[in-house]
């Protein structure tokens, strides 16, 4: 490798590192902006269908924005009583779990002195406080301080989503023209030619929309199934667990793992004896059926993504942007894979074909 080549590669690596550092540093702006673009790609079939009816693009973009805001508002209305109930039960749940963990830690303290130190730190024995008293809910002042940041990110999300739905076809055409102009062509490009990148972007958009629609239907049916089975077995707050199962299923691997751990702890508190493992057993069984049989059958090979790529993308975006990164990780991966796999159009079509 020559010195100019090494310098060029080093510059590319440094540019990539600087790019991701900028994404992390400006997460309060880039995270809602990326989420808005992902949601806009998912909603693109709706916007295109509205535009084909002769509705102005601005009105179509506004309708798409109202749809996603209505969905978010409906989720908040549905989850609010569940969250309130969970917060009311949190001190009792924390106290009972602390007693269980204390018993386990005291049993292990005889084998390992480190476990004894962890037990005292976990139960607040150093300052003489009980487990129940050590639990505290978020303060109102914390919520008030967080409100401006949440409002600004929401404003970025709403604005970016509206303008992306409004001008996404123009953006694709512009990107296609820039790509076509940068590539060496055997002949001058015809007027109005947008280049192969335009078609790649459109195909990738359709791939992401189809994938997300399929996954949304699967997750919705899965959440309903979890709710019905929890009701059948008499597990409290079945509707809440079904909604949470629906939402966390959008985050592969990590989402079901978090819910399974939560159900294990909740089952220990809510039931006695072997019934303590009933919630996690029912959920894991349904999740295995969904993950091993339902999703592969409905998604199909043409929408499938390498599991290792899914896991690495999820880990990376969670590390970069936290929970929000977990929601955009898979759609972004599907978009990039579809963009790379789409077949390019001819470099310079004949003028007669454009007429």
TrEMBL record:
It is a multi-pass membrane protein. It comes from the Bacteria. The keyword Hydrolase does not apply. It is found in: Membrane. This is AI-2E family transporter. The chain crosses the membrane at residues 7-23, 29-47, 59-79, 143-166, 211-233, 239-265, 277-294, 314-338. The keyword Magnesium does not apply. Keywords: Membrane, Transmembrane, Transmembrane helix. Its main location: membrane. It comes from Plastorhodobacter daqingensis. Belongs to the autoinducer-2 exporter (AI-2E) (TC 2.A.86) family.
